[in-house]
Amino acid sequence: MATLITDECINCGVCEPECPNTAITEGEDFYEIEADLCTECVGFHGEEACQEVCPVDCCIPDEDKRETEEELLEKAKKIHPEETFPALAELTNETSLFQNPDRKNAGL
Ligand code: SF4
Ligand code: SF4
After folding, report:
1. Rounded to the nearest whole angstrom, what is the distance from the C-alpha of residue 15 to the centroid of ligand 1?
2. What is the pLDDT of residue 101?
């Protein structure tokens, strides 16, 4: 599922440069994530990079936009056709939050 920025955002802007997919932009009232560009950082990080740096923890999973690890990896490949990504079975806890033991235990 894509990640969503809630209205608790304080517009600090630190998340924007951290997104590997440039999915984050300054919105009208607070920062926003373009769902079509958000891969939950699959292919790049084992956690959502935006949430990792957010001082108020307001980058949360969008339950209405659930996607599988495979779908997110395919999305990353489409966004970055010039890059080489690991195969689905080769994603690790450093390149996919689906392989992160903490997230697995949380029932991802
Ligand atoms: S979860 Fe990752 S890909 Fe999605 S908006 Fe945040 S930093 Fe970008
Ligand atoms: S890091 Fe958090 S508070 Fe700062 S702009 Fe991004 S979502 Fe908003």
Report:
1. 9
2. 87
**63 CA → ligand 2 middle, Å:** 19
> What CATH code is carried by the domain that includes residue 21?
3.30.70.20
Task: Report the alpha-carbon distance of residue 71 to residue 61 in Å, rounded.
Answer: 15
The token pair at 68 is 């599988």
> Distance from the CA of 27 to the center of ligand 1, in angstroms?
15
Query: What is the reported pLDDT for 35?
Result: 96
Residues with CB under 6 A from ligand 2: 5, 9-15, 30-31, 53-56, 58-59
Range of the domain at 49: 3-105
pTM: 0.93
Q: What is the pLDDT of residues 2-57, one digit of tens each?
A: 899 999 999 999 999 999 999 999 999 999 999 999 999 999 999 999 999 999 99
Q: Provide the number of structural domains found in the chain.
A: 1
Compute the distance between CA of residue 94 and CA of residue 16 in angstroms, rounded to an integer: 20
Helix (H) or strand (E) holding 78: helix 69-79
